[in-house]
Amino acid sequence: MKKLLSLMLLAGFAISARAADDAQKADSRLDAAKTVIDQIMSVPDHAVPNDIARRAVCVGVVPGMVKGAFIFGADYGQGVVTCRTANGWSAPVFIRMAGGSWGLQAGGQSTDLVLVAVNQKGFQDLLHNKFKIGAGVSAAAGPVGRDAQASTDASLHAELLTWSRSRGVFAGIDLSGVTVTQNKPDTDSIDGSDHSEDQILHGDVPAPAAAKPFLDSIEQYFGSGNSGQ
């Protein structure tokens, strides 16, 4: 009996330690996402345009997506998404992105990605547990520069506008074929409870303290809540 209790205690400690580690990794990802947004948006000539920022429904940031190019090209990254609500930006939902080669530098190049949902269809796409960009989800390379206009047909009709930053260069990128999935364990690790992504992104769940610096930066550059959301 004592042995069983000891094993149960050890298992409990292991689970607690893993949960703490997951929360720390999630916090670090939020910090990295804030850094990416601050660095990109603080340079007007190399930023998401104002007109797109003002009508952004959701913003996703994937810091340091890694591309490997060995026998086959492969890309993998983890990031975070927040959506505009009537009361400000929602608590974050964590995501994973993976896909085949799509034009990044080879040899283990690390690239930051920014995704902006520009309409309600893009918002609904982000509520799905898994979707592939370009397969039922239209996306276009976003224009760059604070005063740039999203005037192309692709940009005007896209649900998501996408950018990458590699070696200091911020530019629109085609992410067709990349799969986006929700990372619920990481979301739960900072949320402290089991909420659906739908509840979180609709603003029904209070944002945790760890997310505040990231959300403050999003509000600074993309504006505050939207009563029409």
Q: Characterize the largest beta sheet: strand count, sense, and whether it forms a barrel.
A: 10 strands, mixed
H-E order: HHEEEEEHEEHEEEHHH
Distance, first to last CA = 56 Å
Fraction of residues in helix = 25-40%
Give an overview in words.
- This protein is of the alpha+beta class and 229 residues long.
- It contains 7 helices and 10 strands.
- It has helices spanning 2-41, 50-55, 120-127, 153-157, 184-191, 197-201, 212-222; strands spanning 58-69, 73-85, 88-89, 93-99, 110-117, 130-132, 139-141, 160-166, 169-172, 179-182.
- Strands 1, 2, 3, 4, 5, 6, 7, 8, 9 and 10 form a 10-stranded mixed beta sheet that branches.
- β1 (58-69) and β2 form a beta hairpin.
- α1 crosses α5 (184-191).
- The radius of gyration is 18 Å and the shape is globular.
